[in-house]
Design brief:
134 residues, alpha+beta, 6 strands, 21% helix, elongated
């Protein structure tokens, strides 16, 4: 199963050439990931700090230029692998006609208060399993 976020394009996302600046794709991925994680991230500030996630690596392959327009793009996200404290997300940013970006991020379960990695909770492991493509 994968998660899909329909991401609007903003006029400010475009560069002088009229296409979406490469750095904006990181923002699109972050927006999708943030919405995807809403079900598993604690709402209580103390618990959220103790059970945070951080990105430790991102790899992006740009497949085609995305020109600014009124139509949104879809950001598809799924889990490709997981361990006790980390998991990897894969992304495709596309519309119905074109694939623009393929990417991965390594996510680390992290305790912001101690400044150290932590193990995934049972609920987080279930969340990761739900989005793992088989």
């Amino acid at each position: 199963m994968h998660y899909t976020y329909t991401c609007p394009l903003r006029w400010s996302d475009a560069d002088a050439y009229g296409h979406v600046n490469n750095a904006q794709f990181l923002r699109y991925m972050e927006e999708a990931r943030t919405r995807m994680f809403q079900d598993v991230v604690a709402t209580n500030e103390e618990r959220r700090r103790a059970n945070a996630f951080v990105v430790s690596r991102t790899i992006i392959d740009y497949r085609a230029p995305l020109f600014y327009g009124a139509e949104p793009v879809d950001v598809h996200v799924w889990v490709t692998k997981a361990s006790a404290a980390t998991f990897e997300l894969a992304y495709e940013i596309r519309d119905v006609e074109q694939l623009y970006v393929e990417a991965t991020t390594k996510i680390v379960a992290y305790n912001l208060d101690t400044g150290s990695p932590r193990r995934l909770t049972e609920a987080e492991r279930a969340f990761v399993a739900r989005y793992t493509k088989r």
